[in-house]
Amino acid sequence: MKANNEIMALLGRFQAGYVERDLSKLDEFMSLFAPDQMAEMIGIGVFERFQGQEQIREMIESDWKYWGDVIFELDTVRIKIHGEVAWVTMRGALVQTTTHETAMPFYLQQMKDLLDDETVDIDSRIVEASHFGIRRWRERTLGMGHRWPFLFTTILVNHSAGWKFHLVQWAMPVD
Prior knowledge:
This protein is of the alpha+beta class. It has two domains: 2-97 and 144-171, Nuclear Transport Factor 2, Chain: A (Roll), CATH 3.10.450.50; 100-141. 43% of the residues lie in helices and 28% in strands. The protein has five helices and seven strands, in the order ααββαβββααββ. The chain has helices spanning 2-20, 26-29, 52-66, 100-116, 122-142, and strands at 40-42, 49-51, 69-72, 78-82, 85-95, 147-159, 162-171. Strands 1, 2, 3, 4, 5, 6 and 7 form a seven-stranded mixed β-sheet that branches. 17% of the residues are buried. The model has no long low-confidence stretch (mean pLDDT 90).
C-alpha cells in the first residue's frame, strides 16, 4: 500500500507540472524521471520518441509552451507492482489552453522538420505530415477549452531516491 501511495503522489506531481507549466521549474520536474539515458517518453506522433533526460526535457518544454492542461482521471488508475518495477495506466484529457496563433510557428517547424527528415522514407513522411496538419486544423476548429481524451501508460522504477518514470507513453485516439 505504501508503494501505491508513493506512485499516486508521483502522478500528482507529474500532473501538477503539466497544469502549472512553469518553465522555471522544468529542471526540478525532470527529477521525476530516471536519471539514466534509458528513460524514454513517447508522444502521440509516430516519430515522437525521446530518450534520455535531454530529449525528454525538450519535449516537455514544448508541451508546456504549446500544449494544454493535462487532467488525469485518477479514479481510472491501474497500478501493478513487481518488485522495484511498476506499470501504471489511466485515462485523462488534454484541455486546449494555448491559442493556435501562439503555437502555429512551432507546429509549422515541426512539420518542416518531419518532411526534411531523410532517415524516414518519403511515404511515411507524407502520411505523418498530413496527419499532423489535419490534427492541427482540427484543434483549431474545436478551439480553446476542448478536451482531448488520452490514455497514459508508464513504467516506473524504484530508485534509491524513490519511484521514477522510466517510460512514459501518451496515446490519443485519431479524431
